[in-house]
Amino acid sequence: MHRLGSSIVRHSKLYLFSFVGLILLSSIWGFQAFGNLKGGGYDNPNSDSALVTEILQNEFGEDPAEVIVLVDLPSEASEIGPNQVPVHFDLVQELSDEFAEVDGVKQVLNYYTLGMPPSLVSEDGKLIYVLVDLENDANQSEIVTQLVDQYTGDFQGAQIHFAGFRAVTKAINNTIESDLIRAETIAVPIVLLLLILVFGSVTAASLPLMVGGLAIVGSFFVIWVASGITDVSIFALNLVTGLGLGLGIDYSLLVVNRYREERAAGNPVPEAVANTVASAGKTVVFSGLTVAVVMLSMAFFPQYFLQSFALAGFAVVSIAVIGAIVALPATLNLLGDRVNSLKVGRGDLAPKERGGWEKIARFTMRRPLPVLFVALLFLASLFSLSSQVSFGQVDDRVLPKDSPAQVASNLLRDRFAGRESSPIEILVQGDSTAIADYVAELELLPDVVRVSVVPQEEQTEWTRLAVISDIEPRSPAGYDQIVEIRSLESDLDRVLVGGSAAYYTDSQQGIENALPVATVWIFVSTLVLLFLFTGSILLPIKAIVLNILSLGATLGLVSWIFQNGYLQEFIGEYSVTGTIDTSSVVMIGVVAFGLSMDYELFLLSRIKEQHDAGANTVNSVAYGLQRSGRIITAAAFILAVTFGAFASSGVSIMKMLGLGIAIAILLDATIVRALLVPALMRLFGSANWWAPKWLRNLYEKAGLSH
């Protein structure tokens, strides 16, 4: 790393302008990514439910209705006029005809043209369906926007509402895009103010924002490229923004602070920059590698919602690392001591050898067992809040309560018998007797409203059954019902179960199946990287165990808040479903684990530095916490502000993601780093640095100790 630092000193302008130039050039395409991103991605494409949808499309020629339009009539839909025609027939038909004239609309069906089936009218008889199918090659997002904007509200005395997958997805996308701007508007000024307070200089405070901003813009380009190849979730934008700004600040704090120490020690600017890259730069590289490989664990899950985070996380971390070890040192070399210009207060230009963090460390190490007991008891009490955790999946209720898409979806729930808009689709193969027996078994199941054999014109070996249930499809109860249906014994040759409830069940099972693999990936890669950094076996194991404890506490708080609807007076109203989204919990866990390792490396780098110089465990830990405690706390607080700003979002899972990650970061930087790490390292003593002889020799021969 010292060689890289020396090269940066000699060619600062080349390194800086090349990096910035490439990022700015990529922005030409990067900002086009916004229009390519999608709002779904929670389902498992390698499942029976996905196969059912494929068969319905290919063999039955049926696509699910892209848009469900609910027409709230002034009187009952079945009311007949003097001419023996339903009173509202002309109104509904005129609305349907107008929909059909829109470019990209494939077909429009309504309650009357379908023969007035009971399934398409509400229990009070006033709310009916109009189903709109869109052409596959059409710009469906634009069509939905056009229909919603033009027709929501009054139409000849009837009230028009839009529901269905496309309407909900469009509403989520629009809300997130506007919320992202609001979150940045909230976070950036606060972060800049905090950076000025930390550095005591406007110039120095602007450097972390530069690194973070460039990482964000560069990651947009990666997302744009990926979105042309595969589906990418719109939620990836939030991760890029939060991580880009947060890690840019984390790494910049480490680098700039180390540079100031080098200058305070009397080293000239070129030597200070080279030494900074060699020391802090190594920490940044290992930290970035650790966070990046942890982010990649989400690629093991089948849902592209999580795969998008793996891509976005890896991209933004990689670019933030390059910016921190290349562009930032080049800037410091060009600025010299002018990095401290535009002073506002004292800042921390030369950290003291002794101070508050050292006192905390020594206090903790004098009483390691009591501190350990109290800290673990606190984390355990928070984890106990998750005893009643219940997992669900994203649906329209993540939107603000007054969102037209959620209002329409609530009409479906409240005024129709059963879940008419989301039947359980079952495809079977077998003789007529076996099918009849199977239908009879289905009708006996609890919460099943009815089972019908769907007429079909196409020649196919499949028979299609539609099961209407009273259960919310994307819920634990819906999961249990699908498991029960799939466990039914029959004489059929083959049974495939699909529909919304089955999509949810298969998604949950996909996460359950991938979780062990992702966990092993995280643990093994973290153990390897932390060993390569420290030369110790015990320290990586300790780091993983402590991270698990803080994540458990975070899960407890998050489930307690969002399952019960707490804190709405502070973070805004949201719909309480009694569940929390499984995919979002996975993401919170992965991101928080990666960021916790970030701070672990910050602390261990300073502890190891003193230990390698010959200090004992107590003095090494005290020195390390004194040198890094302020940086870790400042970085954690700023990162918590960055992610916490997402709690202002109108989309409830963004509230949960932002608040959950912020909670995890603050717990880790305070309880774990300030109390548990010093206490455990004091108890372990010299064993902290133990490794088998053959691994120690490998570590020394590879030159990783320098």
From TrEMBL:
It holds the Pfam family MMPL. InterPro entries: MMPL_dom (IPR004869), Mycobact_MmpL (IPR050545), SSD (IPR000731). The keyword Transmembrane applies. It is a multi-pass membrane protein. It is found in: Cell membrane. SUPFAM superfamilies: Multidrug efflux transporter AcrB transmembrane domain (SSF82866). Keywords: Cell membrane, Membrane, Transmembrane, Transmembrane helix. GO terms for cellular component: plasma membrane. The chain crosses the membrane at residues 180-200, 207-226, 232-254, 284-305, 311-336, 369-391, 514-532, 544-562, 582-602, 631-651, 657-676. Its main location: membrane. It comes from the Bacteria. Residues 195-334 form the SSD domain. Belongs to the resistance-nodulation-cell division (RND) (TC 2.A.6) family. MmpL subfamily. PANTHER family: MEMBRANE PROTEIN MJ1562-RELATED, MEMBRANE PROTEIN SCO6666-RELATED. This is MMPL family transporter.
